[in-house]
Amino acid sequence: MQRLGYRPEIDGLRAVAVTAVILFHAGFGCTGGYIGVDVFFVISGYLITRLIRRDIAAERFSVFEFWERRIRRIVPALFSVVTFVLVVGLIWLLPGDMEELAESTLAVSLMASNFYFWLGLDYFAGPAELKPLLHTWSLAVEEQFYLGFPILLILCSRFRLSVQAGLLATFAAASFLLSVWGSYTFSSATFFLLPTRIWELLTGALLVFIPPPSATRKRSSEVLGAAGLVGVIVAAFWFDSETKVPGIPGLLPCISAALVIYANSTGATYSGRMLSSKPMVFVGRLSYSFYLWHWPVLAFLRYRIGEDLSIGVSALAISFSFVGAYLSWRFVETPFRRRTGETARRRVFGSAILASVALLGTSIWIVQSKGFSGRLSQAQLTFVEGEQTPALVNNPQIETFDGRLQMLKMGSPDQRPCFLLWGDSHAGALYRMFDRLAEKYKVAGCLAQNNGTPPALGTWRPKGGKQVVPWREDVLDFVRQREITNVILVARWTYYIEGDTDGNMESLIVDETSPEANPVDALRALRTGLLATLNELEQAGVRVWIMKQVPLHPSHPRLLVNQSGGTSQGISLQAHRARNTKVQTIFSEVKPDVTFLDPSTVCFDESGHSIIEGHGYSYYIDDDHLSPTGADRLLRGMFEDVFAGFAQTCEAL
Predict the structure, then answer these.
(1) pLDDT tens column, 61-90
(2) Could you give all domains of the chain from N- to C-terminal order, each with its CATH number?
(3) Which residues lie below 8 Å from residue 53, measured CB to CB, with a gap of 6+?
């Protein structure tokens, strides 16, 4: 017979899950710690189903009473954290970022933050680590599940248990197959949305329909419980950002969590007793509030002092979050979960609606006020204007080639393109300047941009996949068939052979001869791929320019907004050249008919440091992308002669 009362080992399992998530988010080496969310889903599915089935069997189940309990459990702590986030945001965030935060709080109030972040996260929207309410996507998934699942169980209760279990298993299987397919085709939607997460919640739900292990077969329960706990821990430290969860790999943490719950359903195993220890249970009881608090604290610190937090600062952030979690659990969660006459069902629903309306109104107010831009001085607002997303002008014209390739047109709309700007997001950062220069010189061109993709044939990033290989071939076909005469190649070249400045090597490229990413093979792959690109362009009769890398900013320009005066120093010219030493060895092998454009000739001041601001404007949108203002003021002069040449060659066509 299953244990129907309080099960402390489940709180212990919650402690393992939340610890994994927090270690992952804090950068403490738990590379797959995000699976803690999957474990939470399994636990939630089990506990909710057990509760509903018990009440249905006793003929006392009420959907409204169930939703009331969910409101008591979720809403008070959530809204207290959201309030904290809004207050801190008004103090620390720039107007544009505050406006985005208000949009996310609006989504939270509508139980739709998973949709918001699925639709809103992109390369230029800023790092995900800086969005204080990103973690609420998982709460939205659960909330959406709670809306319909009780009704499904009521309908299923008309059938015998085996049929009920079969129906739930069918839904789970369909959701799982969808998640497997989606993890390869629509990975972002698969990660954020309910249909591909239902199977995780139903994995826990199905445990309620499975006969518990026999009390006489304790050895089997011991093995299952230990295997489950080990499986969760292995997934937390074995998985990484490239693991396609919640696809097939998601089975490991979910089945492992289910094994822990199942093995202890008739009596505590050794692993269950470990999880039932007082420290584990204590952390488990705080897990919801701990989960709510830790991410905003980390996000705000990254926003305020830089995205690469030191170990000490991260540890301090976790400590602060734990204190916040305890206070939230003690004075918010616990009181609201107690049933008293003062907090009757009508008052609970009324308070929840009132809080949602208040949050909606506040969010709309902040959005309409452009993030309360009046908080900043005019000088600060002018500076921020240089840190705008490199949006691609209003109503940009799309050039479609052969139904496969879409590119943005630049310059005169009635002329056929004679030049192509080809590269990664660094090429996209030049779009506005190129568009204006093309209009000035009365020529037309196109932008072929693929973020995180250098113009090097036959290469790809393991994380991004090989789909960029045929994309580059499409670009070449466009050049040949449209008889493009001028191509400018732009990329963050060192990124693909040395990784990021924080030591992250996910950007390293590979090719068919070396499918495993490492700096040595990445250097060789870039050399081979770039030279192959140049060779194909040469055969097509194209004149080629290569722009070397712009200086890498030492920090995000938002950190400079509150500077009272003086000039901020960027990276030294010596450090910039040292950083580009390896890629320069590749450039030295390029044929002399290729023209190099070197930003270092215009991006450094007399003191030998990169220019990162001027005339009250930021010249960067982050540590490595020029802002539209920065591109125009730093690089425009370097490209004037190039476009003057385009005007002459295009006239001859």
Answers:
(1) 888 889 888 888 898 999 999 999 999 999
(2) 8-374 (no CATH), 386-552+573-604+631-651 (3.40.50)
(3) 153, 157, 208
